[in-house]
Amino acid sequence: MNKPGTKCSGKVLIWSASGSVGGYAVQYAAGVISKLKNLGPYDFIMTASGDAIGASALSEVLQPGGGTFASVRPQSDEMHLAGNVHLVYDFFSMTTQKPENTAFTEWWYRDYLPGALGGNVTPTPLEKRPGGLNKIQEACADVLEGRASKKLVLDPQADVFE
Q1: pTM higher than 0.70, yes or no?
Q2: For residues 138 and 144, what is the distance between their CA atoms, to the nearest angstrom?
Q3: What confidence tens digit (pLDDT) does each residue in 10-50 have?
Q4: Helical packing angle, 32-39 and 52-61, nearest 10°
């Protein structure tokens, strides 16, 4: 995937299913894999959660030709990747120390990071919801049905004191 701010064209698929709720959502949405395959081929694919179910689904999306996708976690025994699929993962600190990544490392520390810290990158906004764990089902439904545009935060101890 190209650096932020560069002009490029191509298809990118970012498959993200963080945590157990996201993992279940991926399982329930397994039918979407055939639709995603039809929308490809992709120039870049990544999973922002690294869960085994999502990685296995991306392996299927890359079929029949295979390919490579980036992950935030290394490959594990629970992942069922086809032989023609390669998962790319590396510790960021290790990546920046490799001689072949010198140009990226210079860009990251000289251009991107100062801009990001200076406000050029907007973090996902948070919404704190009242009601503690008693409201988790409602929050999940809001996320899955597209009624939550922010990252939802529930305090698990809030219902203890109510």
Answers
A1: no
A2: 10
A3: 766 666 655 555 555 555 555 778 888 888 888 888 887 77
A4: 50
